[in-house]
């Protein structure tokens, strides 16, 4: 019995040595064989950030061993760009890397020191100015000492503005008005200014119901051939409308 146990232990030791040697050889083969040298990098989802820029950020180069690439670090480097929300990198053996990026979704502008404009995404992240001609409202009334592109603004006014932009889209409010400015000096009672300079004062209750009421008012004004100077929705059903004087 003892001899059998010793024999079994010997067999297991030999098998372990064989497995270890095979693993070492396989690892060496995978890390040195030209068969696994990176040949192709596929990129999808790019927009404002070009394919060339993403390649530079990833720090992946043709000829690199595909197993030596740090996928997690490559994703982090790409996501460090302020316009990139997410980067997913996968290996496709033996020699291909897929990079899928999702860019941030700009929903508004913000201004700093009443001069320079920046973009704002739907998570409150500050973006570089892409195109000032894009039809996004400008968020005003925010107070900060400096602007850092890529930083997330966590103040209440920013979330209030984002909620308004989302509600405008969901309720198709942009079929009725074009909002040029969202003033959030008082986040609970933001004020909208349309491109036609109509002031719309919002209350601290669901935006959807306020926008439903606003639609009815705007349709009524249009049918009368009138324009509003301001529309005050802060008091629920007691809506105040001041019409512009006709010349």
Topology:
Layout: H1 2-32, E1 40-44, H2 51-58, H3 71-79, E2 84-92, E3 96-103, E4 106-112, E5 116-121, E6 126-127, E7 138-140, H4 156-170, E8 179-183, E9 191-194, E10 199-201, H5 207-224, E11 228-232, E12 240-243
CATH class of the largest domain: Alpha Beta
Number of helices: 5
What percent of residues are in strands?
A: 15-25%
Contiguous runs where pLDDT drops below 50 for at least 5 residues: none
Describe this structure in words.
It is a single chain. By secondary structure, the chain is an alpha/beta fold. The chain has two domains: 36-103, Roll (Ubiquitin-like (UB roll)); 106-243, Rossmann fold. Helix content is 33%, strand content 25%. The chain has five helices and twelve strands. The protein has helices spanning 2-32, 51-58, 71-79, 156-170, 207-224, and strands spanning 40-44, 84-92, 96-103, 106-112, 116-121, 126-127, 138-140, 179-183, 191-194, 199-201, 228-232, 240-243. The strands form two sheets. Strands 6-5-4-7-8-9-10-11-12 form a nine-stranded mixed sheet. A hairpin with a 4-residue loop joins β5 (116-121) and β6 (126-127). The chain is elongated. The model has no long low-confidence stretch (mean pLDDT 89).
């Amino acid at each position: 019995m003892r001899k059998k146990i010793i024999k079994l232990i010997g067999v297991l030791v030999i098998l372990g040595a064989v497995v270890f040697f095979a693993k070492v050889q396989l690892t060496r083969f995978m890390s040195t064989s030209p068969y696994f040298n990176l040949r192709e990098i596929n990129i999808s989802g790019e927009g404002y950030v070009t394919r060339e820029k993403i390649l530079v950020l990833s720090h992946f180069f043709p000829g690199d061993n595909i197993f030596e690439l740090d996928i997690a670090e490559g994703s982090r480097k790409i996501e460090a760009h302020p316009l990139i929300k997410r980067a997913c990198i996968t290996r496709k053996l033996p020699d291909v890397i897929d990079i899928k990026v999702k860019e941030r979704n700009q929903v508004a502008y913000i201004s700093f020191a009443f001069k320079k404009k920046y973009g704002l995404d739907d998570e409150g992240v500050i973006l570089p100015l892409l195109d000032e001609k894009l039809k996004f409202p400008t968020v005003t009334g925010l107070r900060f000492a400096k602007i850092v592109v890529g930083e997330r603004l966590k103040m209440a006014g920013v979330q209030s503005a984002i909620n308004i932009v989302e509600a405008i889209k969901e309720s198709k409010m942009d079929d009725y008005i074009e909002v040029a400015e969202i003033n959030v000096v008082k986040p609970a009672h933001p004020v909208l200014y349309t491109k036609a300079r109509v002031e719309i004062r919002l209350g601290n209750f669901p935006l959807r119901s306020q926008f439903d009421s606003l639609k009815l008012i705007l349709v009524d004004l249009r049918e009368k051939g009138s324009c509003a100077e301001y529309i005050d929705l802060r008091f629920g059903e007691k809506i105040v409308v001041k019409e512009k004087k006709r010349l």
